[in-house]
Amino acid sequence: MSSIIPILLVALAIAFLSINKRKKFVTVKITHWLLFTYVGVLLLSMAAAPFVADGKLHARETVSEKEISQADNQLHKALRAGRIEDIDEKYLVNQKNFDNYQGKTLEIDTIYGNVPELHVERKQVDDGKIEVFCFAGALTIDTLDFTDMAGEPLSYVLENNILTIKPPKEREVKVSIVKNEFTINQFTGAREKGSHIIVNSPYLYMRIPKNLELIEGTEMSVIFVGE
Amino acid sequence: MKVIECKDLTKAYIGKNALNQLSFSIEENKITGLVGRNGAGKTTLLKIIGGFLKETSGTIQVFSERPFNSLNVSAHSIFVDDKMSFPPALQLYELLEAAGSFYPNWDMDLAERLFDYFSFDRKAYHQRLSKGKTSTFNMIVGLAARCPLTIFDEPTTGMDAVVRKDFYRALLKDYLAFPRTIILSSHHLDEIEDLLEDILLINDGKKHLHMPMEELKEWAIGIKGATATVLEWSDKKELIYKNQIGADTLYAVVKNDFDEPSLMKASLAGLKITSVSASDLCVYLTSESKGGIDNVFSDR
Amino acid sequence: MQIAEWIETEIMKGHFESDQKVYSQYQLAEMYTINPATAAKGLNLLADEGILFKKRGLGMFVSVNAKEMIINKRKNQTLKRLVQEVVLEAARLQMSEDELIEMIKAVQNEEGEQ
Amino acid sequence: MSLVIANLVDIVKKQYLFKLKANIDSFSSLIWIQLLALLFSLGGVGSTLASSGYLSIEVKYYSADLVIAFTMIWAFVTAIIITTKPYRNQDFTYVTNRLSSSLANIIFLLTASIIGGITAMLVNNLLKIIAYFIFNEQLYSFQSGFRELALGISMTILYVFCISAFGYLVGTLVQVSKLFILFVPVLFFGTILLKTSVQKEPFLTSIFKFYFFEPSLLLLLLKILLTSCLFFFTSIAILNRMEVRR
């Protein structure tokens, strides 16, 4: 909707100019054609730009840095409090359930350099079911939210009573961003200080049966929720 | 009413005075010819009147206003010469229309008729016109503008004889229908003298003569005859020009303050009395020395 | 004064009767491509000589005896000057008076035959 | 003889319309310049590489900044051109005085800035379309509404107008003396190189910051308008004494 108003305005301006010109201009010169064609093309592209979207030309949500860090804090808080139901689904990037876990112990190990924070919640029952959740903060580039493109920040496998946290596959994110012009950015606070990319670290959250013994790997730090 | 009044008008360029203490005034609705040698200051004077140039000292009033930077003078006068500058992007007909939008008295009908008569192409461009066509087009603009003060500076540059004649006739006819003040500067005084009511002759930036054309025609006479006789007759008269022809014949131009009987006597004494054409007279009046070009060759 | 002479000739030829209005200065100016002031001067010259007379606001009119006045004027002035020159030239050529009169008569006869 | 007194406003209006017609060709150069800038912008106006563990991020930027910059240069050159002799003489062929000529020029430059500013800002969309259709690139843009667009357009117009005012002054100075052709570039590049002892940064940088880093809309508006007025007033004052068709 918002793009229609300026188009109307420009069209009106051109109409006004051409009425004014019609009185005086006897000859229409190449320049006039050029100018009209050019403005016409510009207006067309302006009208078309929002519609070529079709999944490709996205106007992205913008989030401010403050919002990002707030969201991250809230995520963190919710994890610590064990209230994962409160967490926005978009932060949940991977969830796996391991039913009928027979072992008495579970060792947690990592072959991933950056050790994520692991929050563990002990369930009230011994149902032999281990649930693993992976949450990730937002990926933003110049305040545009690209979280959906970040992919899985880490993966994990359960084998022989060992839960191994593995690094994800190398991932390349290539984006082309149409920036606003400096004449807009100057006032919207988006004055460029170079690009600004924020990648927030992932969090792991586990629900384990009541009597499962947890063995921490050498580099792991486990935080038990609600204890 | 006086349209132009100058008093001690001086225009100095670096190291030289183009106009020097020039004083004159031009009456309303007269055609005045501005005559002078090359470099006499004609164009400078006309450009000051048109408000293009700024006077160095003295005063000039056009329509009782100082012309430099006066919108009023600009609106009621037009300066036509062969160097009039028009935007290259506009076609000839658009130039006429533009002129029509600026000048309140503009006569588009006249402009179009002249335009067609001189077979101009409406879609042609000014800078591609030949010299003569440029002058013709500029002249059309100058005539159709019908400005109360119309200045033609060498308007016929490059025109052929037929077009020149057409121009003079067009100028006069339009002047008769719509009298206005016209200043015409030209090298061809013999061609324009019939058109003129007044003549202003300047030399070296100074006024030399300013009088009705009719007076100028009788202002001087030529005497030709035996050298001794001519010298005797022209003694104590204001000698304007003198030319020795052959061994014993002298042609002299003197100011005409003879009365009818003395002229009669002169011709009885064997002198040939002739009238002097205005254009010749102007040449004699403004020549550097009384002998003219012959002096250059005389002492060799 | 060519304009004055031209109007005189017109009157002599009978193109303008007495009491008839002659061309105005503006008509003359247009006919001859001359400044109207010049034309006015020619008209005024004839008015001064009495050949034309002014009617206020109406223009110039031919006087009653305009033709005679012109004839007189041309006889006494123009023709006289021409004769003067002829006589002077004859003297320079050392022609006798009789020779000159013979010549004039001969020319007159030729004109008459035509 | 009663002459209708010429009205300045009326004459300026006529002259402005005349200039619009006479200088129409400057708008075709605007189009070519903007298209050229568009061509340069198609390769992206900047890019960033970043990596965080497993994630490597490559960002390519598109924007019409270059188009705006080129439009500013165009306005600068156009303003200089209309102060040159042939253009001033054209004014004096018809009815004018020096004030009306300058006023009409200023209004013309304003028109040029408006057209230049609007088209420059709209080129952004053309850029998107071309990148989308021809390069088949996945583009992301900011969600910007009418407010941003209107703000962007009006600020671009003001910047372009201010630059044209500067061009008009430079052109005027060159008309006074051809020495300024030499002097202005020397001054320009001189200030880039010259570091005064008081200020750490070159003079030109502070000027740049004075305008382009001003975050307050109102203050910038004030700065630009005052600067433009200053340039134009100076030019008018200088031109008012100049003779034409010498």
UniProtKB/TrEMBL annotation, chain A:
Transmembrane parts of this sequence: 33-53
Tagged with keyword Membrane: yes
Keywords noted in UniProt: Membrane, Transmembrane, Transmembrane helix
Protein name: Uncharacterized protein
Automatic annotation (TrEMBL), chain B:
Domain ABC transporter: 4-229
Keywords: ATP-binding, Nucleotide-binding
GO MF assignments: ATP binding; ATP hydrolysis activity
InterPro entries, sorted: AAA+_ATPase, ABC_transporter-like_ATP-bd, P-loop_NTPase
One Pfam family cited in the UniProt record for this chain: ABC_tran
Taxonomic superkingdom: Bacteria
Protein name: ABC transporter
Organism: Cytobacillus solani
Top-level taxonomy: Bacteria, Bacillati, Bacillota, Bacilli, Bacillales
TrEMBL record, chain D:
Keywords associated with the record: Membrane, Transmembrane, Transmembrane helix
Record field: transmembrane: 30-55, 61-82, 103-123, 149-170, 179-198, 218-239
Domain of life: Bacteria
Protein name from the UniProt record: Uncharacterized protein
Organism of this sequence: Cytobacillus solani
Top-level taxonomy: Bacteria, Bacillati, Bacillota, Bacilli, Bacillales
